[in-house]
Specification:
Helices cover about 55% and strands about 10% of the residues. With about 80 residues, the protein is mainly alpha-helical.
């Protein structure tokens, strides 16, 4: 029998273990970006792994996740 490791976000549904995805925290804030000069911002915009790009990805995720959750909840009620 296959053993599963239960982590803090996992739960059981009808005896089956459902795994949750790990959260991908992005610890960049506007304060980190606000202090940069125009020249530094231009350099950050060119670098794909810069704080400026991470902050942009964070804003995109914060915008899309609630929309997707809302859409999923609507679909759940439509399928019933």
């Amino acid at each position: 029998m296959k053993k599963s490791i239960i982590t803090s976000g996992d739960y059981l549904v009808n005896g089956n273990l459902k795994k949750t995805k790990m959260s991908r925290s992005i610890h960049v804030t506007y304060k980190d970006i606000k202090q940069l000069s125009k020249k530094e911002l231009d350099e950050e915009a060119k670098d794909p792994d810069s704080l400026f790009r991470q902050w942009g990805r964070k804003l995109a995720v914060k915008d899309s996740v609630p929309r997707q959750r809302k859409q999923n909840s609507k679909n759940k009620y439509i399928d019933l």
